[in-house]
Amino acid sequence: MEKAIIGKKVGMSQIFDADGKVIPVTVIEAGPCVVVQKKTAEKDGYEAVQLGYEDVPERKLTKPEKGHLDKAGVSPKKHLKEFKLKKAAEMNVGDVVKADTFAEGDHVDVTGISKGHGYAGVVKRHGAHTLKATHGTGPVARHAGSMGSGTDPSRIFKGKIGAGHMGVDQVTIMNLDVVKVDPELNMIVVRGAIPGPKGGLVTVRSTAKTIIEKKGDAGISANPQKASARVNPQKASARR
């Protein structure tokens, strides 16, 4: 089932699995979210739901925002996000989406806004090479250098790497698996890192990737013509 929720990045930590292996995880404070609006195929041409997250004082909303939430009978919310879900038709305005919507073992895509790094040069922003630091290079070791021809085309093509504002981009990390869910603390713990600073807004939804279940080991073939069946008795692995 396709699922989605809005939350905040709490920070990174690590936990141990049943085998004693360390798992790097990110803790997300997810929900509770309220269904504020429902889009239908008959009226809007597609099916989706709009979720509201985090209560906010009424004075911080504009009149259109307040009217939109009052129409749904929902308390003032700071963040509104729309999700196209396959089973959106089964959800209704006013329904509450909590962290326990997800379960341990689910695979999710997490979207957030990456950390800002201010104005950065090509070395930091794009990983460009520096010039040698000796033998007359001069104070241009970290400069961008020549950009292209002067006569033709006499301009810089769009997309050329250069210095500029680094970060504050929407980034999606795909196919992270849910390690733990705590409905009492509204907590979802996912394996690995997610974009954004601590306290940054993130959205968690079922992954768009196709999950391929791992099969068992191939084992040793019974066919003597195959290499896997030709066991060398001189090898330590064959001596039992």
Can you count the helices?
A: 3
Main beta-sheet annotation: 6 strands, antiparallel, barrel
Helical residue percent band: under 10%
Number of DSSP E strands:
12
First CA to last CA: what distance?
48 Å
Low-confidence segments, given as residue ranges, are none
Please trace the helix and strand order, writing H or E for each element: EEEHEHEEEEHEEEE
Strand order of the largest sheet: 1-2-11-10-7-12
Strand content: 25-35%
Outline: extended
Structural commentary:
It contains three helices and twelve strands, in the order βββαβαββββαββββ. The chain has a domain at 117-166. Strand 10 (170-182) and strand 11 form a beta hairpin. It has a six-stranded antiparallel barrel with strand order 1-2-11-10-7-12. Strands 5-4-3-6 form a four-stranded antiparallel beta sheet. It has a two-stranded antiparallel sheet with strand order 8-9. It has helices at 41-44, 63-72, 122-126; strands at 4-16, 22-30, 33-39, 48-55, 77-83, 96-97, 107-113, 118-120, 164-166, 170-182, 187-191, 201-206. The two termini are 48 Å apart. It is mainly β. 8% of the residues lie in helices and 35% in strands.
Short description:
With 240 residues, the protein is mostly beta strands. The chain is 8% helix and 35% strand.
